[in-house]
Structures are given as structure tokens and as C-alpha cells.
Design goal:
The complex is a heterodimer. By secondary structure, chain A is α/β, with parallel strands linked by helices. Chain A has three domains: 12-244, Rossmann fold, CATH 3.40.50; 250-343 and 429-553, Rossmann fold; 354-427, no CATH class. Chain A contains 21 helices and 22 strands. In chain A, helix 8 crosses helix 21 (543-553). The longest helix of chain A has 16 residues, at 180-195. By secondary structure, chain B is mainly alpha-helical. Chain B has 15 helices and four strands. Chain B has helices at 2-5, 39-51, 56-75, 82-107, 115-131, 136-160, 165-183, 193-200, 213-231, 233-243, 245-250, 255-281, 292-302, 314-334, 340-363, and strands at residues 188-189, 203-206, 209-211, 283-284. In chain B, the strands form two sheets. A two-stranded antiparallel sheet of chain B has the order 1-4. In chain B, strands 2-3 form a two-stranded antiparallel sheet. In chain B, helix 5 packs antiparallel against helix 6. The longest helix of chain B has 27 residues, at 255-281. The chains are: A alpha/beta, B mainly alpha. The A-B interface holds A 60, 79-81, 83-85, 90, 92, 96-101, 105, 109-110, 112, 114, 117-119, 144, 146, 160 and B 52-54, 227, 230-233, 236-237, 239-240, 242-244, 246-254, 310-311. Chain B: One of its GO terms (cellular component) is plasma membrane. Chain B: This is Sugar ABC transporter permease YjfF. Chain B: Residues 20-31 have a biased composition (Gly residues). Chain B: The chain crosses the membrane at residues 55-74, 86-107, 137-160, 166-184, 205-229, 260-282, 294-327, 339-359.
């Protein structure tokens, strides 16, 4: 404890760590150290290598080169069990607990108190009750873990991690599902552990929390070390720039351009028109005209019907009422395949399950939709595939720029770009993007937003869905607001603000048909309603990233 | 039944007064401060029990068993007796042992298709070695070691080479069945004095009731299995793997060792079941016990163990075996039905159980 801030005695010292996955260099010669009694943060965008570094330290991944020393002694873990035995305790980003076992078991599993060779269930429940009480968590240790909310499960995972008298405690995004009170409770626990001399690694997207609790931080970018800094010596704007590695001007550019685009809204330019299109249990019949070259944003809370509406247009689900016309001709969409033949592409919000095919290469993923459209009996020649893949890798700046890399090894943002490339390859007239920027870093986000603009300028219609209202406002020419499976407003994006949109989302009584009136009525909605809406609005993991930039620019 | 169709409410939440009229026994006018033991409270408790992924299926099986037994008692004279019940154990002791081993495997989310063939193989080994004059004191331990080793090989194949359990145990099944024919193509009868004695021995329980030594062995196996699964770290790791193998690994549990060991246990149980089966048939025959692995799986599933792993009890599997047994007994008592009807009933029962699970999962 005497080496409280003595930089000479780190408890963890990783040197020159490199890890490669097929086609991807996830970590490239990274140094990292942690001191006892200090809270350290690992900062970087998605895909920077934070999770990989953590898993190297906890023995989940074997390192290709480099050394790891724990309390001055060289170690080589071959599995998480060894790392835990050596005093490294981890709470992973995704809650890794067992829903089929009791809360007490989830806390104590592998370390159960035993009497005469058998598990002492009473002692186990007593001990876990104590631990839960220490976190101010009032739940029955005997209840099934699966019956609790994600936030409670997260706290249970933390209870498990602090039970072992760990030298090093790793918390990877521990606060993503916690509310303010729970975060405060967690911070209290972290501070008390810190006083006991535990070295704590706290990884979070929330910049405020990092600045509140951390003493030191290490920045990674693209698998490489940017540097190690004391939190009090690093301004937020500098931190954000170190994470992104480029000036934050892209987004400003976009806003300028958004205002300058004029859309031809005559009937001739109408590409798609949905008239009273609806589906029982999914979305009430609603109208949605989209002109060529127009970006229409769908705003609404999770479950408001925004995805459901988009799925009707994309032919994923079948509409049971209403009519869809494409260039004035009424059509019926029964399958996505038919939508594709009308040059309508739907990119799902569920990137992993309905988007990329992780075990295929970047090239295969890009040509997939085009190949499906041509039919399987007319394979795209290899040379054509390579050309396509190369051109999109360059155009969208997909990294790594290796068409043979497996997509599952790419970061979220790059996976999203591959997905975009797949749909762009079929040259769509209407591109439906459901949450294309969720869970990806701010650099990739800006690139995708820029791409949406360029596409619209070239005459492509885009239906853009995002939980981030700032993003919808920034990109859309027109915004359609949904609430409880109804379209409640269809507004020109002219002078709209996040607050006025929130008011519309919160209060459906605002006039539906008259955009002007809705606009005027919006500010009249009480502030309370707006606050309520923002409190219940789904918080995508990247939401704070936007805040970061804005905080940084100020 | 309307109550069961409601979304599961948390027991703490007071019920809405508007709904009270629909209660099973008119809990309407009982003010807001009702005790948890009201009709509605009990109904909620029962509903929670039945829809619980942990206890629901095994409760349903227990009710079903009692119901079938009562139906049998009402329809047939002499059905409602202790010996009819004990005969369920006597006739199915080998299946109980098989189901115990299978429960371990299925709890981890695996499957073992080799058990029927291994039963036949141990019968063949026993019969042929006893024929050449080996002592039962050597033969039985040898069989148990051999089948455990076979289980170990299967487990290693699954763990080290990441072979699907279905495929690995399918291979073991063909291997074991083929080895039976290598030993002999015909039935070999067992005349060894110890085996014959064990086959005919009855342990009296008083009042005209008796069981066989096989039943005692099976019950000992069940008791050990219950203890291992409930009270040892190994047992809890079995459940943990079924709940989430990756999570278990990240928690630092010995996933690899446990995963291999469940196949060793299943192999051991198959060997033991094979020995018990020879006590029952006093012969070894290469074509015996074909499809028995499916009976064992059916018993485990009917006993409430989830095929994807993580939920289930050994005692549930025992109940599953008893349900299969009692259906068979009823068909025997009926006299006019062919024994194939057993299969039809088991098929229907499995369908009902799978549907019930799907529906509970949806409701939750």
C-alpha cells in the first residue's frame, strides 16, 4: 500500500503484446500497465483492441508475442481459471453468468464453501447475501438469475468479481445497463476497493464516468498504443482526438451540406409511395412517400413501429393492408427478393444475425446480394468479384483492406460498411438503413453518414432509422415520427430540434396531418414530457460518443 | 385454465379487482389485504411452479405418473398394488441406470446415442467371458472399466476435436454394435452360477412385496447421482455448462474436464446397465437393446430435462422411466393391445411434453 502512486511498482505490466486473428492484427506491440490502488481506464473506439487486450490479460486469448508480468513475475496464462487463481478478476462487457442457476451460485460458482466434501448451501447463501448487501442489492440469493433484469445481473457479476480477494479487478463496460443510482453505488464500491490497494481497470464509453472515477488512462487506436496519460493532465478534447486520430470537422461539414440539398418533390420524382400500408400487430396503416434523392428519417422509440414499417417496405414482412407503388406502379412485396428486383435494399439493425455472414470473407459478403439477384446459376466471375470487393473496400475505407479476411474478425463499424457495400453493389434505388450506426465508433459513423449524403445527391432514396435523434436530424430532409405503432407526424426537416422531436415522440396528441401546426405545437409541450421521453429513450451504446464530441468541441 | 393463460404476474403484485370475478373459486370480494394463502395466491403459486423452467416439467411428469397409476387402478383389478409399482422398478432397473448417465450428458447440452449398443456389447462381453470360465468378480469390473474407457474416448473426441456429440456418439454406437458381432453372431446364454442366482434372487420387503438386487443397485446409482449433481462442484459445473459453456469458461470453471467426464459417467452407466440387463435376460445377443438409447433419451426428456441442457433432475429422469413403465404395464393389463402401442403412447407423450415446453417458453 506504500506504493500508492509509485510508478516504479506496477502490479500488471504488459509489454509488446501482439495478437492476430486470421486477416486482422488485433493488437500490435501494445504496452500496458496498472498500479495498485489506482483506477485505470482503457480508451479507444470500437475495434481499437480494448476487449482483445483485456482478454489477453485474463487468459482468454493466447498472445502471439510480448510478455505479461503480474506483481513483477512473468506469467503465461493458458485459460481464465489460471488468471483468476493469480488474482485477476473480471466482469465482461456481456454479462457472462448462467441464467439457469441461482444468484448465490452465480456469485460463488467454482469457489463454493464446502463441508465434508459437499457444497455447504447455507454458507453459500449467507456469503452471497452479505456480498449483495454490500452492493445495496436486495434480492433473494436463492432466486434464479434469469428472473432478474440485466442491470441486476450486471451487479451480481460485480459481486462475483469482488468476492475473490483480487489484486486486479477488470470492469469492462460495467455501467452500460445501470441507472444513475446504481452507478453511484458501483463507484462507492470501486473507491473502497481502491483504498484496499486493488488495481482496477474501468472501461467505459461514458466519458463523464471515466473522468469521475479514473486516475490514469491508456489510449488505443487500431490495435496500437497511442499513449498512457494521467486523467487530470488530459483535456477531454485531446482525449477524443487521440481516440479518433483526426480532426472533428467531418460532422460539421455534413450539417452544412444537409441544408444545401434541395429535393425535387414533384410527383414525377416520387420513387416509392406507401398508401395506408400496414400490418396487424406491427404497424397501423400509414402513408409514406419517398422521392428520388430524398433522405427520410424515421424517429421513434424502440418498439414504436419504426423497424416494423421499414420491414414492410423492404419486403421482409408482408403488409396486410394498403398499397405500395414504385414509380407509379402498384406492386406487392412478398419476399426480400422481390424488393431487391425493384431495387429496394433493406439493411437490418440486427447486424450479426440478419446482416453479415461472419464465417465468409469480406469479398463473399459484399457480392452476396448481387449474386442472389443474378440467380445462383450465373456465378459472378472471380475477377469481377475481386474488382467489386476492392472498389468498395477503397470507397468505404473498409479496414483491414483484405478481401479475404473473415468478416467476423472485423470491428463493428467495418462490418457495417461491408453490409453497406453489399447493398450498394445491387445499385438500389431505395436504401433502407435500420440503425446503421449503432455500436460503431464515431469515425466510422461519420463516414457512413457522409456516404448517405453522397448517395442521396446521386439520386438514391434513403430511409434512415436511428435511435439517435441528432443523427436523424443531421441527415434527413424529412422526418417521420412514430409512436405506439402509429405515424404521428411527417415533417420537413426545417428548424426541427431534438427537443421538438422528443416532444412529438412523447406526446401523440400533437396534430398529425398538419406539419406546420405540429411544429408550432411542439415547443408548447411541457418540459416534463420531453424529459420523460429522453429518460425512456433507448440508449444505444454509442449515444455517449456523440456527446463526447460535442463536449470536446466546446 | 383462463388463469394459466394470463401473462405470469409477479407474486407480489396484488391482482386487479376487475379480474377477480374470473378466479377459480370466487376470490372476488376479499379486499386488497388478502393473505398469500387465498385461492388466488395458491393458483398463482401453482402457475409459477408449472411455468418455472426448473420445476415445471418435472412437476407435470409427477402429476402425470400419479394420474396414469390411478387410471390403471380404476380400470383393472389388481393394478393398484405395491408389487405392480415395484415391478416397474424391477423391469426397468437397467433403464433407470441408463437414464441417470444420459441425464448427466443432456444436462451439459450433449447427447449419447451409444448407450443401447454399449448395453448389448457389455452383455456380449459378459456372456462370452463367462462361457470361457472367467469369474464374474473379474468380468463385471472389466466391463465397467472398458465401457468407461469408451466413454472417455468419446468425450475426448467431442472436446479435443470439437466433434458434435451426436456424431461422436453415433460413431461409438456403430463401433460397439459392430464389436458385438465380432464376439459372436449368435445369442450366447449365461449359465454362470452367480449370474443365475442374481437373476432369480428376490429381496423380500415384507407383506408379499419383493425387489431384485438390480433394483438396489439402480437405486444406489440414483442416490449417488443425486448427491453428485446437487452437492459437488463437479455437479454444479455440469449445470453451468448447460446454462452457458462460454460463461462457465470465463468464470474459470473446469469446463473441459467436466465435459469429458460426463461421457465417462454415461459410458460407466451403460456398462452397468448392460450387466443388469444380463441379470434380466441371462444371455448376450448382438441385436439386443436396439433403440434403447432412444428410450433413455425419452425418459430423460419426459422427466423434465431440457435437451439444450442446464435444467433437469436425476429424479425427474427416474420418474420418466416410471412413466414409460406404467404405460407398458397398462397395455399389458389391457391384454388386447399389442405392445407396439407403448411406442405410440410414448411418441404422443413426447410430443405433448415438447409442445408444453415451447408454450411455457413463449409465455415467459
Amino acid at each position: 500500500m506504500t506504493h500508492h502512486t509509485d510508478p516504479a511498482a506496477p502490479v500488471v505490466e504488459m509489454r509488446g503484446i501482439s495478437i492476430s486473428f486470421p486477416g486482422v492484427k488485433a493488437l500490435d506491440g501494445v504496452d500496458f500497465r496498472m498500479f495498485p490502488g489506482e483506477v485505470h481506464s482503457l480508451m479507444g473506439e470500437n475495434g481499437a483492441g480494448k476487449s482483445t487486450l483485456i482478454k489477453a490479460l485474463t487468459g482468454v486469448y493466447l498472445i502471439d508475442s510480448g510478455t505479461i508480468a503480474l506483481a513483477g513475475e512473468q506469467v503465461a496464462f493458458s485459460g481464465p481459471a489460471q488468471a483468476q487463481a493469480a488474482g485477476i478478476s473480471t466482469v465482461y462487457q456481456e454479462v457472462n453468468l448462467l441464467p439457469n442457476l441461482s444468484v448465490a451460485e452465480n456469485i460463488m460458482l467454482g469457489r463454493e464453501p464446502r463441508r465434508f466434501g459437499a457444497i455447504d448451501w447455507r454458507a453459500m447463501r449467507r456469503r452471497s447475501a452479505e456480498l449483495l448487501a454490500g452492493l445495496n442489492l436486495d434480492i433473494d440469493p436463492g432466486s434464479l438469475l434469469g428472473d432478474h433484469s440485466l442491470a441486476v445481473q450486471q451487479l451480481i457479476a460485480i459481486a462475483r468479481a469482488i468476492d475473490v480477494q483480487a489484486k486486479v479487478l477488470i470492469l469492462d463496460e460495467p455501467t452500460s445497463s445501470l441507472d444513475t443510482d446504481e452507478v453511484a453505488e458501483l463507484f462507492r464500491v470501486i473507491r473502497s476497493l481502491k483504498e484496499q490497494g486493488v488495481a482496477i481497470l474501468f472501461v467505459s464509453h461514458f466519458l463523464d464516468q471515466v473522468y469521475e472515477i479514473c486516475d490514469r488512462l491508456t489510449v488505443l487506436r487500431n490495435g496500437k498504443l497511442v499513449g498512457e496519460y494521467l486523467v487530470e493532465e488530459l483535456l477531454r478534447i485531446d482525449l477524443v482526438q487521440k481516440m479518433i486520430g483526426k480532426e472533428l470537422t467531418t460532422l460539421d461539414d455534413l450539417e452544412q451540406r444537409a441544408r444545401s440539398v434541395v429535393v425535387d418533390e414533384s410527383d414525377a420524382a416520387l420513387f416509392v409511395n406507401a398508401a395506408k400500408l400496414g400490418r396487424r400487430g406491427a404497424i397501423h396503416p400509414a402513408d409514406l412517400p419517398i422521392a428520388a434523392g430524398e433522405v427520410v428519417g424515421l424517429a421513434g422509440l424502440l418498439g414504436s413501429g419504426r423497424t416494423e414499417f421499414a420491414r414492410l417496405l423492404g419486403g421482409i414482412d408482408r403488409a396486410d393492408t394498403g398499397e405500395l407503388t414504385v414509380r407509379g406502379k402498384a406492386i406487392k412485396l412478398r419476399t426480400p427478393r422481390q424488393a431487391i428486383s425493384h431495387r429496394i435494399a433493406f439493411s437490418s439493425e440486427n447486424r450479426r444475425d440478419e446482416g453479415i455472414v461472419g464465417d465468409l470473407t469480406v469479398r463473399d459478403n459484399i457480392v452476396l446480394a448481387l449474386q442472389a439477384d443474378r440467380g445462383w446459376f450465373r456465378p459472378i466471375p472471380k475477377r469481377k468479384q475481386d474488382e467489386l470487393a476492392q472498389s468498395y473496400i477503397q470507397a468505404l475505407n473498409i479496414r483491414p483492406g483484405n478481401p479475404d479476411a473473415l468478416v467476423r474478425n472485423l470491428s463493428g463499424g467495418n462490418q457495417q460498411k461491408v453490409l453497406l457495400a453489399r447493398w450498394l453493389a445491387i445499385a438500389p434505388r431505395l436504401l433502407i438503413l435500420d440503425e446503421p450506426t449503432r455500436g460503431i465508433d464515431i469515425g466510422a459513423k461519420a463516414e457512413i453518414q457522409k456516404l448517405v449524403f453522397t448517395l442521396a445527391e446521386n439520386g438514391m432514396s434513403v430511409l434512415f432509422i436511428s435511435a439517435e435523434l441528432e443523427e436523424v436530424l443531421r441527415l434527413s430532409h424529412r422526418i417521420v415520427v412514430l409512436r405506439d405503432r402509429h405515424v404521428v407526424a411527417d415533417l420537413e426537416n426545417d428548424g426541427l430540434t431534438v427537443d421538438s422531436l422528443l416532444a412529438l415522440i412523447a406526446d401523440g396528441s400533437v396534430s398529425v396531418e398538419e406539419p406546420g401546426e405540429a411544429d408550432a405545437a411542439a415547443p408548447a409541450v411541457t418540459a416534463g414530457a420531453a424529459v420523460a421521453a429522453s429518460a425512456t429513450a433507448p440508449a444505444p451504446p454509442t449515444a455517449p460518443t456523440t456527446d463526447e464530441t460535442e463536449g470536446g468541441r466546446r | 385454465m383462463t388463469k394459466l393463460l394470463d401473462a405470469p404476474a409477479s407474486p407480489a403484485r396484488p391482482s386487479r379487482p376487475g379480474r377477480a370475478g374470473r378466479g377459480a373459486s370466487g376470490g372476488g370480494p376479499t379486499g386488497p389485504g388478502r393473505t398469500p394463502l387465498s385461492a388466488r395466491g395458491i393458483a398463482t403459486g401453482i402457475r409459477n411452479l408449472l411455468t418455472s423452467p426448473k420445476y415445471g416439467p418435472v412437476t407435470v411428469t409427477a402429476i402425470l405418473f400419479v394420474a396414469i397409476f390411478i387410471v390403471g387402478g380404476v380400470r383393472y383389478r389388481g393394478f393398484f398394488s405395491g408389487q405392480v409399482f415395484l415391478n416397474l422398478l424391477v423391469d426397468n432397473s437397467y433403464l433407470i441406470v441408463l437414464a441417470v448417465g444420459m441425464t448427466f450428458v443432456i444436462l451439459t447440452g450433449g447427447i449419447d446415442l451409444s448407450v443401447g449398443a454399449v448395453v448389448a456389447l457389455s452383455g456380449m462381453i459378459a456372456a462370452s467371458l463367462l462361457q470361457t470360465g472367467w469369474s464374474p468378480g473379474v468380468v463385471i469390473p472389466l466391463i465397467l472399466v472398458l465401457t468407461s474407457v469408451l466413454g472417455l474416448l468419446v468425450g475426448l473426441m467431442i472436446h479435443v476435436f470439437k466433434v458434435q456429440p451426436f456424431i461422436a456418439t453415433l460413431a461409438a454406437m456403430f463401433l460397439a454394435r459392430g464389436l458385438c458381432y465380432v464376439i459372436s453372431q449368435n445369442s450366447i446364454s449365461i449359465t454362470d452360477a452367480t449370474f443365475v442366482e442374481l437373476a432369480v434372487a428376490r429381496i423380500p420387503l415384507g407383506g408379499n412385496l419383493s425387489i431384485t438386487p438390480s433394483v438396489v443397485i439402480a437405486l444406489v446409482v440414483v442416490a449417488i447421482a443425486v448427491w453428485v449433481l446437487h452437492a459437488t462442484r463437479f455437479g454444479r459445473t455440469v449445470y453451468a455448462i448447460g446454462g452457458g459453456e462460454h460463461s462457465g469458461l470465463l468464470m474459470g470453471l473446469p469446463v473441459a474436464r467436466t465435459k469429458v467426464l460426463v461421457y465417462v459417467i454415461s459410458g460407466f452407466c451403460s456398462g452397468l446397465a448392460g450387466v443388469l440387463f444380463t441379470f434380466y435376460t441371462l444371455s448376450g445377443y448382438p441385436l439386443t437393446a436396439i433403440g434403447t438409447e432412444l428410450d433413455a433419451i425419452a425418459a430423460v426428456v419426459i422427466g423434465g430435462t431440457l435437451l439444450t441442457g442446464g435444467y433437469g433432475f436425476v429424479l425427474g429422469s427416474v420418474l420418466g422411466v416410471l412413466v414409460l413403465g406404467v404405460i407398458q404395464t397398462i397395455i399389458t393389463f389391457e391384454g388386447t393391445l399389442s405392445s407396439w402401442w407403448t411406442k405410440i403412447f410414448i411418441g404422443a407423450l413426447l410430443l405433448v411434453f415438447i409442445l408444453q415446453k415451447v408454450l411455457t417458453a413463449r409465455r415467459r
